[in-house]
Model the fold of this input.
Amino acid sequence: MTITNENYYSYVSDYLFINFLNTINIKKIAVTDFLEEENGLEDWLSYMAKQGILNSQQVEQLKMSPIDAKKMKAFREEWRSDFERSGESQNAFESLAMYTKQAPLSFDAFLKPIPSKGGTEGLLAILSFEMLLAYQSGIFEKLKKCDSSVCYAFFIDTSGKRKWCSMEVCGNREKARRHYAKKLNS
Ligand SMILES: [Zn+2]
Done:
C-alpha cells in the first residue's frame, strides 16, 4: 500500500525550512520520520514542488546528485533542538553561511535560489539561504512549536496568540482531549 505523504502533514508552511523541520511527526500513535522512509526525501521534494514551495528548476537541480538522508537528518535535529531551546547558537549560524558557500546560488526571474550543485550540498544551500533571510527578517522569533502534546510541528505565529500548527487538526484534537479529560475527572 502506498501512502502519500500529503496525508501526513498537518500543516504546510510557505517556508521550505519549516516544512523541512516538520519532516518528523507523530502519526496516530507512532513517531514517523519521513526522512527515514524509502524515497522519503524524494517524496518530500515532490510534495514541496506540488505545493509551489520549490519550483521545477530547483527540484531538477537538487535531483542531479544523491541527497544524504543521514546528513539532512542531522541538520534538521540540530535546528529543531535550537528552536526548542529558542537560543540559536553562533556555531549554527556560521554553518548556515558555510553551506550557502558550498553550492553558490544563482537566482531565477522570481528570485528563487538555484544552487550550483545538486544533492545534499544543494539542498543545504537552499535551506540555509532561506534561514539566514528568515532570521534577518525576524521570523525566527515567531517560530513556535505546536502546543499539542502529540504534534512535533513548528509554525510561524504572526499574531503571538496562535497555539496550534493547524486548528483543524491539532486545535480540535486537543480540545476534544481536554474535554474528555475533564469529563473523566468530574
Ligand atoms: Zn500541530
About this structure: The longest helix spans residues 167-185. Residues 5-143 form one domain.
